[in-house]
Specification:
Blueprint lengths: L1 E3 L5 E3 L4 E2 H7 L6 E8 L2 E4 L2 E2 L8 E2 L3 H23 L4 E2 L4 E2 L2 E7 L5 H16 L4 E6 L1 H10 L3 H9 L6 E6 L2 E4 L13 E11 L8 E10 L2 H14 L4 H7 L3 E2 L10 E2 L1 H21 L3 E2 L5 E3 H7 L1 H5 L5 E2 L16 E3 L4 H9 L10 E10 L15 E11 L4 H19 L5 E7 L12 H18 L3 E5 L8 E7 L5 E10 L2 H4 L4 E2 L5 E2 L2 E10 H12 L12 E5 L5 H13 L4 E3 L6 H10 L4 E5 L1 H6 L1 E6 L5 E6 H13 L9
Parallel strand pairs: 18-22, 24-25, 31-32, 31-33
Antiparallel strand pairs: 1-2, 1-4, 3-7, 4-5, 4-6, 8-10, 9-10, 10-15, 11-12, 12-13, 14-15, 16-17, 19-21, 20-21, 22-23, 23-30, 24-26, 26-27, 27-30, 28-29, 33-34, 34-35
This protein binds one RNA strand through β14, β15, α7, α10 and α17.
Amino acid sequence: MIITLKDGSSKEYEGAMSVLDIAKDISEGLARVACAGEVDGNVVDLRTIVDKDCSLNILTFDAEEGKKAFRHTAAHILAQAVKRLYPDAKCTIGPAIEDGFYYDFDMPSLSREELDKIEAEMKKIVKENIAIKSFTLPREEAIKLMEEKGEPYKVELINDLPEDAVLSFYEQGDFTDLCAGPHLMSTKPVKFFKLTSSSGAYWRGNSDNKMLTRIYGTAFTKKEDLEARLEFLENIKKRDHNKLGRDLELFTTVDVIGQGLPLMMPKGAKIIQTMQRWIEDLEDNEWGYVRTKTPLMAKSDLYKLSDHWAHYKEGMFVLNDDEDENGVSASGQDIMALRPMTCPFQYFVYKAKQHSYRDLPYRMGETSTLFRNEDSGEMHGLTRVRQFTISEGHLICTPEQIADEFKSCVSLAKYCLTTLGVEEDVTYRMSKWDPNNTEKYMGTAEDWDRVQDAMRVILDEIGIEYTEEDGEAAFYGPKLDIQAKNVYGKEDTMITIQLDMFLSERFDMYYVDKNGEKKRPYIIHRTSMGCYERTLAWLIEKYAGAFPTWLAPEQVRILPISEKFHAYGEEILKELKKNGILATMDDRAEKIGYKIREARLEKLPYMLVVGANEEETKTVSVRKRGEDGDLGSMELSTFITKICEEIRTKSLTQMEN
RNA sequence: GCUGGCGUGGCACAGUCGGUAGCGCACCUCAUUGGUAGUGAGGAGGUCACGGGUUCGAUUCCCGUCGCUAGCUCCA
């Protein structure tokens, strides 16, 4: 960064450094500096007063650190404002997050009007240009200070810090907070911010603890950036699948049917049917899968065998659940459960006959409907539902085959993502067990280390970039999760490929090797393109409802100029349908401009306008989506050839003239 | 599951400081038969999510339930 001294000369500093270092370097010790640095990729001018006492204030203009310090300071200003207006509120923690910050308080929940008042108080604090000072205290004094300030949560935090921790505080006027920093040196630069919402959040993220009031805000160094952010938040609502999907008549929900149980309307069902037919044919014809169709429910005995009863009973829909302490049903009926996964069903398909090593890998695919009793607060649109259908599959293989088969599962998933046009939007996550919470998992630490190491080797050989995360594994093995973000930036798992090290033993699955001996196979659980509902949600947001032609529920609409051309339109319609094209005709007594307007609002890939000119020359006038969509007239056979090619190749772009 | 917010015809919204409701689009009918983003006229459609309570009277106030939603927790 470049520091400009009072006399106008300037000096360049590299990397992060303490204000004290700079202050020492500047002879006066108390100097006015103009610090030019990067926040949000913008060069900002953080004019501020360097105070001798600010020895712990780290000025860093690493873009990420700069953002954090800036937004974290906004969080402190929020806390200061809240304490001024609500002296009884207790402070807890308040970090910087992407594009903003939040702070959790122990206080009653807030209305929008109250948030506006807090925001106004924050503006006052910024205007007051309060210097932010930092100091450290020994443990006893730190606790005493926080007790005096009436902050029991801070005392708890201090008590939980290790013995040798440096207890630093940041003080801005009447507000002092236990905080590791760094911060800006005054409140003044935090000019452009907005409190966006408030909600509940558990103390320390634990649902056994008290629920606090969290206030979210967004903050920027430039007015334009704040405005752009607020506008962005407004605009993405239009892409939100939960809104757009309903507007485009893809799905709906009904109160009396229940939460997490969306109804696919004809257009949504058509898109899912297109994907399903594609995936089933792809897996069976090109990737060596056999297809199964197994029951949607089973006796509890099955889930006891698979260990789901112990690990996952809460998440299942259980029928006739009146079992006594001996595990016997009082009504005498079998206790049943709707299936939350397909694994044990397909295992029994495998087990129904004896397999030689020559049969392996045995790849089973199923378009499988699953039921999971998600908590009521979890359901959302099509991404978190209680009943969904997944391109499920299990691969039974020998130890020698496991690496190649795993790789081919990743290749298939990538192929699906590329075809859908979303491959560039995903990230890969290796989901490992939680070594500090071993009772949630089967097996020993040695088992997990061995299989996780094996997976890491495979992933490195594939050469994909991935992160590793503890505590995200299945109870029977580690996973490769393919993650995608929705329009709001929230991440969901789209595809998962899992290594299972325990269930073949539990289900006594085996194959006969070349020496005639029974051997345990390895199992891969996987999906190729994930769950149809969630994938549809993702595609709606990706394409804002303007689906690639091959996925569109209505690909072509014929628009006759008037009733006189209905017969010609019918002729064309018949020809299109004969070629497997999803086509309709708008034969209402409306003007052509009106029909075009409607078709555009519905984001149809193609419109065929037909009138006297077209009928006479046996052509169609083609219009595709977009501003310059008029492709002029062409012979019907030409159009059919082009669109069939577009559909066959699953093109992500539309035909040119 | 937890803490908030919200729930008015298919959709997007007004409105009622408590006296049983309106607009636009969509829908239906009639006229219009047109050339690349909205033709005109008329009509029908709502027990104001559901169930209690307060009140002479509740869509409006209170409680509960259901649903949607933000976030937290959870997600084999």
